[in-house]
Design brief:
Number of domains of chain A: 2
Number of strands of chain A: 12
Number of helices of chain A: 11
Shape of chain A: globular
Oligomer: homotetramer
Distance between the termini of chain A: 48 Å
Strand order of the largest sheet of chain A: 10-9-8-11
Largest interface: A-D, 40 and 40 residues
Strand content of chain A: 5-15%
CATH class of the largest domain in chain A: Alpha Beta
CATH architecture of the largest domain in chain A: Alpha-Beta Complex
Helix content of chain A: 25-40%
CATH superfamily of the largest domain in chain A: paralog of FGE (formylglycine-generating enzyme)
CATH topology of the largest domain in chain A: paralog of FGE (formylglycine-generating enzyme)
Chain lengths: 441, 441, 441, 441
């Protein structure tokens, strides 16, 4: 099995200029294939269940990303396009209230039909229609809509990449809560067991910094990364690497989960109510801590970044360590000089791993774990959502959530960039979420 | 497809006397086959979901009835029996707290594994072991345990028959709440659309009546049908047939669901909170009322017994009609002179149907719909539960539930008898439950 | 302070025949006074709070019983009666849906207004109007309504007596859950601390027994005690006294609250979820078990009947003891030959107490604790609710509850009779509820 | 009745230097008196109830602010101080987990005891002890603790002022949800009914701005206003006044509460679930919209700032109006040049009122309504919470809440300043919360 999309979404600029639709069709096929490759190891039963409200059944993901192209590209722009099934516009609309009535999220796991096979047929139906639309002759006919079509297509591909990561998160949860401890893939790339390099700090001077997506760039960015703007950033220090499992176990051993003074109030209430004693997926045995991974139960790797912690746990750890989380501006400033690369989806490891730190910039900024920042997810000054129903993509979630940065071991490498803003509610733990410390000068 | 078990569980007495284990093995195979035939039309996905806490995924039913034989026959009595999987004793224990820790009921639908295929393997593993145990040579070795083994086997077969009905109820719910309105079987026996015969009343004089299972009979009965005892029954009238859909629509048209004076207090609270306006599975369209059946959406059949109503609705209708529900003793007294027969599982209709009434006894006492009685499910005087964990089978549910009588279109005909006590909480509607009126002299 | 109503509701028959309204007015005043005497020890704050949905603030009780006379006697029958406040018909209607919209029960404790003083004014307003209506001259004018008026008045007085007991139950809960352990009355009659007499059994032969209110009697009974009817009662034994605290502690010491095999399924779920380890109001200390009483915290009295247990606990104890609870028919048969008397409200003890058993009949059948029976609260054969809104008094609660018999230390002695049917849901513990064992021949 | 504290908390600097404890004692008495004056119109019953989890019974407030002085000043610093009651440290601890176990917030309204009188005794006990401690002779003895004592005293006074506002909010809720529509004070200063002046905009240039409490100032500030720091603020426009009731009714008339595209996702879910159709306390009648005020039911005043709206409603309105909410930095920059003054607690109006706008700065920045900003409540860069248990005062609430600025008609004027950061969860409506629009250049 081989998932390779390294070039995906970074198309050849020359080809793009001359034959954009051909290039896009190539990209479309690559991304769509990767999604199906991710699902290949699943049994039919694994496609169906929803283990908590946040999780969606894998077959729902497969259909929803397809619906996205149908609803926003084919229906409005492909002349004579025939819907695969009239009910799907309801069933696979996630949350676009201005488009149609979305099927209730917590009930996604109650639907045995459409079957997995039906949904693959749906995918192929839409794939054919997309190929047809993107053929040169049809593209010409679309006239002045062509640019809008290609923009929506590009959005749809980034959307599908997001759901690739969600698929891996959700599959991990579906397998991870099962008493039989099933294995998703036994051929995943193993990580070396070793301790992390000693924690070091990088210093950043103060100044007016530019944050957000460069308007001069032709690269893709979501609406929420705009507009680019200036922020004053005071001097700060950033840790050379994320907090490791070993360090987090020190926090646990020091009573971290029992000391209210370390916690935000909402976090402390949750710790007591939910009985949290360790990150999600951790299980204690006589020989110490184990965790569930997509390759099954494994000993906790001391040097790997701690993962599957909530913002509350990240914040409590930082308080315990006499530090704090970086703001998203600080993180972005630091990331601007770090080359993109690391433990991403393409590595087929699907688990954070230890990595040796380097001298000239913070390590593991990209990949491994999404890093909780101390910034609430709010609009940038002057933010404008996309027009129409696509405006519901990001903007309406700008309350009650925190920003995470940098991508993780389930994110496609081609999907990430320094300005990328991910977001989850502060209690969420099923994402591959860790954190890195910062401190004042 | 053909489900035939008419002879099941009514074995040839002579053969039984000479070679009981051979006869039982035959019965075992018949019952087990029927269960699998019921599941044959399902897609793999249909086996997995749990649409409400009361519903279990079909694959869970398949495993649980198998576990019953493993836990109560093979493990204690089959020397050298090897468990199929150590975790199954937890996963497929429904509620036998003194046996092992049952897996939480509301989480049955969160388990994608074991797969459907795994569960069929489990069935075959247990079936082989059962065949081996029931072979003449092994049976001899069991010595004085033989009688206990055969009694538990018989209980296990009746248990599996109960789950055949539960499977049909749960499949109906899984399909019935799906917006795609899937069809379980399109080849089910259709019912004629016609009006019910006019309602008539049968009169019963008072007297000391014998109720419960005859201790002189060798026929099977559950512990809760014992001991047989006497009850004084005052004179009463019993309706010649169950209340029909047409009659129930009259109740609805007369504001039945909006008039608190007709309802028990708990029922009225539920009506308002849940927004009930009709029986479960009913859907109103411009052309009138439709309902979901296992063959898909159909017009409501005016002459068929109303079905999928709660005890509260049955009671409210009776109040509206100036009548009441019969007690379980009254029902049993009337049923003693009615031959068993009717619209049962073997008819492959799986939906109540109109039937012409007869002159000499109430019609449709058996089959079509379980009939809510006015009796709370409580132990008979002198009731003793079975010894050991099997004592949890029935006795511990004797609070908060009402008795239903007579079997339904999903019950195997060989499973029913006049003394049979079914029970559900007063709010339950997903069983094939209807009712029949009674009144005072 | 002195609460004396021994003669209440047992009026002089001769006086009643000649001057019924005068006699009733006397009774009215006595009952109304007792209610206010019960509230006299309260601080204003104690009148206001609602410590759980089942509890009503004392001021609400004071107003509701007054509303009962206003709504069902004064408004329909007292010419020119002026309502005290138009909103009270909403605020103090408990559950009479056909009369007006009841104010939501769980929100009774959110109302700081009307004040306690307002409510006493309301009482006096209604008391004056009742006195006026019951004056000889006005009574004459009512003509053929007179009998209905007096019947409703009598119902209203029994209703107010029920609320006297509820007041004591609710005050006990309000004080009992307060960390300051406040004392309602320090002058309550103390009970001797002693062990109960050894448990003995009384034998009853079988036969057709008459159960329910004698239609030839002029004494009051609720609709739910009617109609009198025959039941066949098999031979049984009844315990000579209720189960004592000492015996219940033996059950606790034997792991009673940790053994699922002793419990009804609903009861076991509740035990685990609520963490029950002892009856309500019990608190363990280094010196053993204490309980909250209306005189404050006291050592558990070993010989007093166990109190504040649910039906589930009563049933589990009986299972543990190899016995069962009596049916309500059995209890009534036994009670028919027992003189009424015992530890009632008039004793001003408000706590069950030990009492020596007697030779010729079961002891403590009346008073001390309401005794859970094994009978679900369902209508007697031929039951008819009162006409109109008063029909909602009892009948609509005939599902989901169990019958209790015999009255308790908070019940007025004049309020009880052998046919009296009290009822609570099986989980309720805040009533003065205990139990007595029965067994088969 | 007269509440006057205009000079409070702005003590004479010279007197302060020479005799600080005398000056502070004066301030202490003023603030404590105002709190009691606020409660004077209450009936005893009004002190007791808790109408939702967010609301505390007034008697709880009276005790809690007293407990604050006892726990943080008297116990650690007043030699020989005797606690009023040992249980109060549990009952009246709001949320200081490191100090003692707080009594559960949602159960505050279940406590009828201690009585209101007990709590006033508690206040007087603590007041005497505070007067004694602050006497010159005792103060000398405290030696180097003196500064800490005075700092904590000052914090306690500001704390009590916060609870004065909470008292008015909670009293409004207690009265506002009562069907009898009780009046708190009928002598409150009435507002003129008039339309707001036309909305105008003030322009602000960009630059590096200083935000937060000036470290050179001796004036009081909470820890969360620190440290003062620089932020880059882009050019923006700020509305000349808050959004008025008239304008908000235009939003309502335009379907504001029915259009998902205007709402944040969490807000829209809440609107549907809670059935919001107008601000809290609004009631529609045939003659239009009314609202509950502390003087009873009144017609909505078109020119007054809209009040009792959640952050979600404020944000939805802003979206509808093509604008946005200001950030807290923008608000503070604008407020720096606005003199403090307006419709505060001292005006005894307790309701926002119309006010004519002025030419040279935005109007009604202070008083009338707290203004929701678009900023999540997070720590300033370099924030340090107070040491010890007092560190739980503010810092632990820095997740899930939004910042509000400027004070309201229930805030003491002496309590407010441009740097003051108030915070509530985005769904909260029972504070006197309104909002003002901002927009980009």
């Amino acid at each position: 099995m081989s998932v390779s999309q390294s070039a995906t979404l970074c198309p050849d600029e020359t080809a793009l200029a001359s034959e954009p639709s051909r290039v896009y069709l190539q990209e479309y096929r690559k991304v769509r294939d990767v999604t199906e490759e991710i699902c290949r190891p699943l049994a039919t039963e694994d496609y169906v269940v929803q283990t908590m409200d946040d999780v969606s059944p894998p077959k729902w993901h497969l259909a929803h990303v397809t619906w996205f192209f149908e609803a926003f590209v084919l229906k409005p722009f492909a002349k004579g396009y025939k819907c695969f099934h009239p009910a799907y516009d309801h069933l696979f609309n996630s949350y676009y209230e201005t488009h149609s009535t979305p099927y209730p999220r917590p009930a996604r796991g109650l639907l045995s039909r459409p079957t997995v096979e039906d949904i693959y047929s749906y995918r192929h139906h839409v794939d054919s229609a997309m190929a047809h639309l993107l053929s040169s002759s049809r593209m010409l006919e679309t006239g002045k809509d062509q640019s809008e079509i290609l923009q929506r297509l590009r959005l749809g591909l980034h959307h599908e990449q997001q759901h690739q990561e969600l698929l891996l998160m959700d599959i991990k949860h579906i397998f991870g809560m099962n008493p039989l401890a099933p294995v998703y893939r036994s051929d995943l790339a193993p990580a070396e067991y070793l301790d992390a390099d000693p924690l070091d700090w990088f210093s950043y001077t103060d100044g007016l910094r530019t944050v957000g997506h460069d308007p001069a760039s032709s690269a893709f960015a979501f609406d929420n990364e705009n507009p680019q703007h200036r922020e004053y950033v005071a001097p700060f220090w950033l840790a050379s690497r994320p907090v490791s499992n070993r360090e987090f176990m020190d926090f646990m051993d020091d009573g971290g989960y029992e000391r209210p003074e370390l916690w935000l109030s909402d976090g402390w209430n949750l710790v007591r109510q939910a009985g949290w004693k360790a990150p999600l997926y951790w299980e204690e045995s006589d020989e110490g801590w184990y965790y569930r991974t997509l390759s099954g139960r494994q000993r906790v790797n001391p040097g790997a970044p701690v993962c599957h912690v909530s913002f509350y746990e990240a914040d409590a750890y930082a308080t315990w360590a006499g530090a704090r989380l970086p703001t998203e501006a600080e993180w972005e400033v630091a990331a601007q000089s770090v080359p993109i690369g690391g433990n991403f989806q393409e590595k087929h490891r699907f688990q954070p791993a230890p990595e040796h730190t380097v001298a000239d910039h913070p390590s593991q900024m990209f990949g491994d774990v999404w890093e909780w920042t101390g910034s609430a997810y709010r609009p940038y000054p002057g933010f404008k959502a996309l027009p129409g129903s696509l405006g519901e993509y990001n903007g309406k979630f700008m309350s009650g959530q925190m920003v995470l940065r940098g991508g993780c071991c389930a994110t496609p490498e081609s999907h990430i960039r320094p300005t990328y803003r991910n977001f989850f509610p502060p209690h969420a733990r099923w994402a591959f979420s860790g954190f890195r410390l910062a401190k004042e000068d």
